[in-house]
Specification:
Length: about 150
Amino acid sequence: MKSHLTSLVVTALSISIVASAHSGATGVIKERMDGMNAMATHAKNIADMFKGKAAFNLLEVRAAARSFIDHGQPMVGLFPDTEFSRTGKYTQALPAIWNDAQGFDKSVQQFVLQSEKLLALTETTSDQVVLKKQFFAAAKGCSDCHKRFRKPKQ
């Protein structure tokens, strides 16, 4: 569980750094980067709670789950098969997104499903162990997708 948390924090921080470093992005690339940055910010906040660096706040967990859903649902549409989307300035997308469109879609759907489960749990329990487990199930979707569909850090 600790390695998942560390991986999540590193992913969240790297997304934040990349997003600010790529402030010149435009169009659909900027739109998807903004969404990723919003999700990363929430993920970092929740990870800090589960690491004991911040007080547990059920409302923040709920807000994170909603952000994951709100940004996850349109994610596939933010990667249209266009030259700009594939090769535009600052894109981090690998060709695998379009070469394995079904796999990408399935990854995004799984992330949204796990995020919906997290949201539902926030409405029925405040048990941190249960919420932490489901949070990691959702966050795993981020790291799995990044491993398969995002360029590695240089």
